[in-house]
Amino acid sequence: MNPANIPFLVAVTGPTSSGKSSLALWLAEMLGGELICCDSMQVYRGLDIGTAKPTPAERIRIAHHLLDIVNIDEIFSAGDFVRETERIIKELQSRNKVPILVGGTGLYLRSLLFGLSQIPEISPETKIQVNELKSGGGTRACWQRLKELDPSGAEKLHPNDSSRIMRALEVILSTGKPLSSFQQIEAPSNQRYSFYGMVCDRPREELYERINNKTLEMLEQGWIDEVRSLLDDYPDHLKPLQSIGYREIILHLKGELTESELIPLIKQRTRQYAKRQLTWFRRESHLIWKHPDDKQRILEECRVCLEKIGQNLA
User: Fold this and answer.
1) Which of 17, 173, 288, 305 is most buried, with most CB under 10 Å away?
2) How many C-beta atoms surround the C-beta of residue 223 within 10 A?
3) What gap in Å lies between CA 271 and CA 15, rounded to an integer?
4) Are 242 and 46 in contact (CB under 8 A)?
């Protein structure tokens, strides 16, 4: 294949609140690109403030894809992300636009660049076994069982994250191997795109300060009212409503958390999530680490990659 016909992607990733969005927006303007959101929560309609979706002005400034495409009672998987993103990349390539992925869902990015993890099919018997355990003891019983079989995997999941817990339990019961063993398989020989991929890297104290400030900013923007409105239409056990911040606000609305308890807890859970994201990205040897303020150097490196594969800038 002519190298000029191979889609070239830019991937701007990193932990929450690290400055991915503003950097990606600027790169899209400089490179003649459009943004593809690589975030497992921003696909859901109605989860706006708590997922830090781009503002209307930012969406006018640069086209964004994969925002607000499913309702929160619908399932959207890594496979769905790959299929939708492949379609968008082809469409952008036909218009000579550089696809720029932006977001912190590492599994989505890896699945696009190297293909989906080859997890064996789960037997109907195993699915029945896990469903019976959930029916008898709830999600907490499934999490406890997962903790017995895959302690490190269970520790990465919130005990109320029903869908992920059940999936992880099904995999280890069916294969004898933790889900992470399939997700961590390196596949550089299966690289599907040319790309420049970078992690927004900030000193830990700087990142945590940004997380704390962002939490306060989102609450001031009306995050609690957003959750209250969602609960008018959806039950609170849905997976998106169990994500960071949303779950805590629901507990607050139920009277189980005071406001003085709510804010520190959201900050703490967000910092813990950022640590898990950093752990994931450190395993991704194909990504380079850059401070997002070093944007001129990042831009030049993107341009060098484009020149190497013979693609002209818009």
Assistant:
1) 17
2) 19
3) 9
4) no
**Contact criterion met (CB below 8 Å) for 82 and 143:** no
* Residue 79 neighbours by CB under 8 Å, 6+ apart: 111, 116
- Residues 162 and 299: their CA atoms lie apart, in Å, by 41
- Let me know: does 23 contact 292? Beta carbons within 8 Å: yes
Sign of the dihedral through C-alpha 49, 61, 90, 286: negative
Residue 20 has pLDDT above 50, yes or no: yes
Residue type present at position 14: G
C-alpha 202/C-alpha 14 separation (Å) is 9
pLDDT per position as a tens digit, 188-240:
457 889 999 999 999 999 999 999 999 999 999 999 999 999 999 999 999 89
- Run of H or E residues at 131: helix 124-149
**Other beta carbons within 10 Å of 35:** 26
∠237-241-245 over CA atoms, to 5°? 130
Fold classification of 124-183 (topology level) = Histone, subunit A (1.10.20)
| Average pLDDT across the chain, whole number | 91
d(CA 311, CA 3): 8
User: In the CATH scheme, what is the homologous superfamily, with its name and number, of domain 3-117+185-308?
Assistant: P-loop containing nucleotide triphosphate hydrolases (3.40.50.300)
The ranges assigned to domains in the chain are 3-117+185-308, 124-183
- What token pair was written down for 189? 């020989």
pTM of the model: 0.83
Identify the burial level of 121 via C-beta atoms within 10 angstroms of its C-beta, where 0-12 means exposed, 13-18 middle and 19 or more buried: exposed
